[in-house]
Write a structure and sequence with these properties.
Strand order of the largest sheet: 1-3-2
Helix content: 55-70%
Number of domains: 1
Strand content: 5-15%
Number of strands: 3
């Protein structure tokens, strides 16, 4: 069952990222004095725009703000996909999707794949504008690999528990899936 949920999640995330809904949900923003690209998003990327008051000295802080905003946006997209598309789940399925939505490595992935597509330092207006983007295909590939790894580890974990049970070792009841998932999360995968 969890494998079916994992496959459905990746397919749903893919279609969601390339649908018009994403643009209609996030829309665009206009800020006085901002460049024309500010608040816009190309079809093949997830982007955020940020600005700070100040000059060139604010550029690095604006870029950092942009990465933080991009991480939050990606996380929000994943949470939306799960919320809108997966209902009436078993406890195991709910826990699996919860692990997907609470990705500890997502900030590293976003930071290492962020492209600063546009930067403008307006010394006259004393504002710094940055647009950072993340390729949608890269995000989908990352999530595919993550789901595959979680599913594989869960399968191994459950098979080890089944062998332990066959050998007469103490095991968790099937109703304690949350503990199994917590042990999985704490493992290094």
């Amino acid at each position: 069952m969890v494998l079916a949920i994992a496959t459905a999640l990746v397919k749903t995330l893919s279609s969601y990222l390339f649908s018009a809904y994403l643009k209609s949900h996030y829309g665009s923003v206009e800020v006085d004095g901002a460049p024309s690209w500010y608040g816009s998003e190309p079809d093949d990327a997830i982007c955020v725009s940020t600005y700070r008051n100040g000059g060139i000295e604010e550029l690095e802080l604006t870029k950092e703000d942009s990465k933080i905003k991009l991480r939050k946006k990606v996380n929000h997209i994943i949470e939306l996909v799960i919320y809108k598309n997966f209902k009436n789940l078993t406890p195991d399925e709910e826990e699996f999707l919860n692990k997907i939505s609470k990705d500890k490595k997502l900030p590293l992935f976003v930071d290492s794949n962020t492209k600063f597509q546009n930067i403008k330092v307006d010394e006259d207006e004393k504002k710094v504008f940055v647009r950072s983007c993340l390729d949608k295909k890269a995000l989908i590939e990352y999530e595919k690999n993550r789901v595959k790894e979680l599913t594989k580890n869960l399968t191994y974990y459950k098979s080890d528990k089944a062998f332990d049970e066959l050998n007469g070792k103490e095991t968790l009841d099937s109703g304690h899936a949350a503990k199994e998932f917590d042990e999985l999360e704490n493992s290094d995968f």
